[in-house]
Amino acid sequence: MPGPEPRTVTVERFVPAPAEAVFAILVSPERHSALDGAGMVQGAPSGPGRLHLGARVTMGMRQGRLRYRSVNEVTVFEEGRALAWRTTGRWRGHTVVGGQWWRYELTPQDGGTLVRHSYEWGRARLPTVTVRLPGYPRRMARTMPESLRRLELAVLATG
């Protein structure tokens, strides 16, 4: 009998740079639209210039023709090691979807950093209806490796 469906999508990539350099890119909300392999993050964020525990940042989002703002609150912050935020979608001033977490964990290794990127969709409100049935776990599994590739390019360009 198969076990319960996993509700987290995780991808990894070795980045040939120190964890501090990778983290410096991740904590800059201005960089997130360029890192987004799914192409959903649109425009400039509103909020602090550098993320910290409890920071709230809103971002323009697009899915097909639907445009909305996501509200992102930093839930995990460990300097140089870990960053996570909970995201909710707002439309016309109301929270309509969300609760998923996006997480980055950085593990220093010889010659660079192992970056683990996770989409924890089981934390969402009504995850089966709002996340699984519309196919987000499969879509994120396809686009998250591109996000890590873009992260690596951004880190190497600043080095």
UniProtKB/TrEMBL annotation:
A Pfam family: Polyketide_cyc2
Source organism superkingdom: Bacteria
Name of the protein: SRPBCC family protein
Natural source organism: Blastococcus goldschmidtiae
